[in-house]
Amino acid sequence: MTTPIALTIAGSDSSGGAGIQADLKTFAALGVYGASVITALTAQNTQGVSGIHQISADFVTGQIDAVFSDLAIGAVKIGMVAELSVIGAIAAGLAKWQPKQVVLDPVMVATSGDRLLKADAVDALRSKLIPRASLITPNLPEAAALLDEQVATTESAVADQGKRLLTLGPRAVLIKGGHGQGAESTDYLVTSAGSIALSAPRVATKNTHGTGCSLSSAIAAGLAKGENLESAVRNAKAWISAAIAAADRFAVGHGHGPVHHFHRFY
Q1: Which of 210, 222, 237, 257 is catalytic?
Q2: Which of 15, 30, 133, 137 has its CA 20 to 30 A from that of 191?
Q3: Helix axis angle, 229-245 relative to 211-224, nearest 10°?
């Protein structure tokens, strides 16, 4: 019997709604064993980020080597990588261990608006990590920031930005439409073969903390189970939409509460 295993390389969220904690909950909810490499510790709750403690690049390397030398990693999800040196350590780890599937969520800003990625690290993200990704999952503001452009406001502009992001080297791009307007939230999966629009009803809730982290880790979970990219993205989109729809069953914190990762179970 083989056990599907996914690895998250990301920051810790002390309130449990995003980051490593959200990723591990997502893996578990979708029947995948989760391992983790922690890149940063945040003092964080549903109202914002009050502090960030960086993990040294050497210790990030140590965690990566420990996990890959023992566990059969089916897919990697990369989230918060706030420091230049940590990006270098992750890139070196990916080059050394050659995982088949890498889902990169270019986390630059928290739901609360707090900046999580230093300006000098954006260039390193573009040049060192994005070319190693099977899929990158920027939201509309992150896609614009990666391209040094204005946020896209039309379907054609989003598709065009997706094509330009492909030139940075990933095999595919998923531009998330959660920051858009309208009755539906539409994501665009862009590959060399073209663009696919994936829509779901927009849910009226303030409890959206960790949605981006959870979507990218849900895709990684699907890939770890052997799903092809389009199936993994479609299944993850359906799952996160249901998790957002169920979020108001929770009363957690006073700000942007978490989504309901285990909506299928309770």
Answers
A1: 210
A2: 30
A3: 140
